[in-house]
Design goal:
The protein is an all-alpha fold. It has six helices and two strands.
Length: about 190
Amino acid sequence: MSSAKWAVAGAIALSVPAIAYAWNVSRNVSARARVDGACERIESTRTTRWAVLEEPARSLFEDDVELVRGLFLTMGDTPCAGLREALASPWAWNAGRTWDDPPMSQDRLAQITAAAERARARCPALMGSALSAIPGQDAAAIDAAAVSACDTMMADFDAYAAAPREASEPTALWAWPERLESLADALELTP
């Protein structure tokens, strides 16, 4: 093989890792920017949303409202802190790297589960009372609507408050920005 061919082969051999590394750095920078943006949205929206939800939460959760408040106002803190740390250096090789929320302690999960069960028991009566204020409603329709609304509301509570319940499969590091952006979108849509 001539020296020119060796030079071309050498240049190709050197450029492939350089291109892969540049791609990795680009993904890290993009992911960190998206994580920062989503976390800033989550952090700024939580307090505003809690102000709207506090009174209904007090009615529904009664003595457990401080637990619910704490869950709501810290939503996203663990992934935001963990991902900001994982993506701190754009130079780190993160292709194929995973990260996931640590599982919730059994004590914390038991507190949340108990609060949710107490709220589930109170919800239909509270919702039925609110719906009965609408004139012209039949009692059976009010009861059905109350149960349906409570099922939806408590499913949302379970999804946000008690996740992650247990260890799960780690998520690709670069997939997390989308998850956090979805959480930020959901918080911004909450009435």
